[in-house]
Amino acid sequence: MVVFMKDASNTRHTAVKPLHQAIRAINRASCGALACYLASMGVAHAAPYVEAGQAGNPASWRSAEFNADWGVGAINADQAYAAGYSGKGIKLGIFDQPVYAAHPEFSSANKVVNLVTSGIREYTDPYIPVKAGDAFRYDGAPSLDSGGKLGNHGTHVGGIAGGDRDGGPMHGVAYNAQIISADNGDPGPEDGIVLGNDGAVYQAGWNALVNSGARVINNSWGIGITDRFDKGGRDPAFPHFTVQDAQLQFDQIRQILGSRPGGAYQGAIDAAHSGVVTIFAAGNDYNLNNPDAMAGLGYFVPEIAPSWLTVAALQQNPNAAAAATTPYTLSTFSSRCGYTASFCVSAPGTRIYSSVLNGTSLADLTIGWANKNGTSMAAPHVAGSMAVLMERFPYMTGAQVADVLKTTATDLGAPGVDALYGWGMINLGKAVNGPSMFVTEADIPAEFRIEGAYGDSQFVADLPGVGAIVDAGKPTQRTCSGPQCGLDVWSNNISGHGGLTKQGIGTLVLTGANSYSGPTLVNQGRLAINGSLASTVTVNNGGILGGNGSVASLTANRGGTVAPGNSIGTLQVAGNLNLAPGSTYAVEFSPTASDRIVVGGIATVSGANMALTPENDNAALLSSNQTSSVLGQQFNVLQAAGGVQGQFGSVTDNYAFLDGNLAYSGTGVTLALERNGDSFASAAQTDNQRSVAQSIEQMSAGNSVYESIILSQDTASARRAFTQLSGEVHPAIATQLINDSRQLRDAVGDRLRVEGLYDQPAPGSEDNSVWVKALGAWGKNSGSSDSASSTSSLGGLLAGVDGLISEHTRLGAMAGYSDTSLSLGDDTHSRASADSYHLGAYIGHEQGALRLTAGASHSWHRIDVKRDLQFGVFSDRQKVKRDAQSSQVFTEAAYRLNLQPLTLEPFANLAYVHFDSDSFTEKAAPRPSKAVTTPATPCSRPWACAPVTASTSTTHKNSTSPPPSAGSTT
């Protein structure tokens, strides 16, 4: 049975109000579509579907569900799925009999939205009992056809376009798209009567679909042609439907455009004008007949042609011998593309398996899947493909996506666009890689050209950046959220007479061998050529041209930038290069290479600027033990076989300690990088920064730390580097541990000040000789001009035991554990922690009002230091775990004064703390150095050292930090 729109099986729809009301009463909340179906099949439970398809592996997507509709595989949809695209987030319109939302093929959440339309009829239909002036209302409930059966055409079409992939019997092309269904109400037979499509019903449907935000609308219906052309479709001896006959139909349409009777056609034109891609089946009138004027409306209204697609049907070649070389041919029932060829494609339409519903009423309604034939089945393959590509290219207009689909089609029949197949068989696997042609009228055979249908011949690639709003103010407004909005790659070979205009802040990469002959304009963002262009390239204000490929010729105007490579690379210019005044040649360099432009013709440099940038890979420079120096390197940055004319007006090096100098020869320009006269110390503002800078200055070129400072883009960046390279956290944690030693002294003092501690215990009582104390402290330091701010904390526990050894003297011992943490601020990115174990002894003597205390302790520290070096483009992480020890002796004298009602106790104390650390080497250090022993210096942080007199020494080896200077804690 050939099913097409109104015609194929001569079916008609009859609206049955009781049935509508009954179906609307179905409680889908209590019985989901898939659950209902499984229950009807006697299946109690179904295991959750697990997707077997894998990214990058098309074969993994070819399940039994995938293969059920041979068309999905024939258009290479598996390659799109493997690339990550399935129509997700796209609203796909179906203008047909309603898509039955309760069918298990559409069981995912919010899969189908049935639009509600209503109004007053314009047409008295001779096939069904309705007349002009009757009210209509459509809400997704199925209706009966002329044979008394429930209409399932829309449900079958919807399954092909977007049925769920969930382990069921089949799935649609865009299985993750949302289906927006509008009921066209009364298709009736395809009899060629222009007024047979009720203007009010169709206009309401068009308006609802456009307002819903649908970006593509499938239409498997039309006007049809009269029976006198039926034989002509198969036998050239009889009259067949030509473009002239279609013109006669359009002449009737034109008379009613803008009026209520013409709503079916005006609505379609308005939808296309709004940017919605409108897809029509070509018709089932056999191979010699052309499409009717509805399917060919883009031909008669040229400005909508870019957003219009007509679809012919394909079959698997029944000739087994020929199938090896020609696997697909035009279905025997399908109309040809004919005069619509320039906007016509072909897709599978014979024996297409999809969802259906059966029955004559709610009482016997059943659901299932079945094969159908028709261009009605071919069109939704195209609609689904458009939805997949709209996800793939979220920044493109609908017309541009249609161009991608057309120009990547597999050519069938006569070479190029032809009368039978149009552009050929759609190929999703190729289409996801971008367009294959920039089309102008010169690319369309003369017999199919449509005057005024091809715009200005420039394909505008507007990559607006991730998060940008697209189609602002329209029903299709959306956020460009895919990564392609900021960076996209087109890998197809692009031909045609058109050109490319790069707009938007994003980056577009072309990797194919592109032969298109129109101009390439880079107006905004970045265009990277990693393949080749036969096109002339012009970079305008705000545009950047990059890549490692080749172009025919290149002009950079004022504000335009040429930046070869993707990192460091070479850009080839076959013809001439022109760098105009105010343009920029951005040169990226490393110690061993730089960007370069190689010109086959003449290079004209008219005072352009050269801007120098270190290679991004230098971010890992600090992890290298040794590296080549950029100093003294000479790079051939421009080479022209036809000679170099003119000079660069300036070199912008943007480096505090580096200058770039240019030398010119007849055919080239050489860049030399040299040290300027500013010392590293000249950028410093504090003593510590100055000391670090002077130490680095003494290192040789090629040392990774030295090279990182050479590449400082300004003095502020250099100062940040000096601060971070100082390794301040190492003396800071030592100082913090020295400061924390007071916790032990304070604990002893608190213990020996307990009232009555020196009294002899009463007979029979126990001496209170055991004590425990919890330790806790938090601190914050605002820093100074020469030290970073910090926060610290300490927690721990001390326990002790003591007893009287004479009438007035008490001797004791203590042990404990503490945990210290320290975090430095002020852009130092450093933190440290220490686990400390303590052991000590103490003695106290009290004679009348006089109290004397003395003690000593020793602590073992396990220190863990982590610090991130982040300055300029450089970064590294250094860490070390090391051991340290500290010892202290302390004493205190106090005298109690009883001044009733007060008691005062003046005191004096003295402590000596010695801190000693093992030598250490930080992990990920760029260049381990010999151990350097630094002399003990006074603590530079009075707030931490005030309670004690500190004498410390640290032996360390730290390749990132030069030896500490005076004023730092060691």
UniProtKB/TrEMBL annotation:
InterPro entries: Autotransporte_beta, Autotransporte_beta_dom_sf, Autotrns_rpt, OM_autotransptr_brl_dom, Peptidase_S8/S53_dom, Peptidase_S8/S53_dom_sf, Peptidase_S8_His-AS, Peptidase_S8_Ser-AS. Residues 763-970 form the Autotransporter domain. Keywords: Hydrolase, Protease, Serine protease, Signal. NCBIfam families: autotrans_barl, autotrns_rpt. Residues 1-46 form the signal peptide. It holds the Pfam family Autotransporter. CDD domains: Peptidases_S8_Autotransporter_serine_protease_like. Residues 923-970 are annotated as: Disordered. GO terms for cellular component: outer membrane. SUPFAM superfamilies: Autotransporter, Subtilisin-like. This is Autotransporter serine protease. The lineage of its organism: Bacteria, Pseudomonadati, Pseudomonadota, Gammaproteobacteria, Pseudomonadales. GO terms for biological process: proteolysis. Residues 961-970 have a biased composition (Pro residues). PROSITE patterns: AUTOTRANSPORTER, SUBTILASE, SUBTILASE_HIS, SUBTILASE_SER.
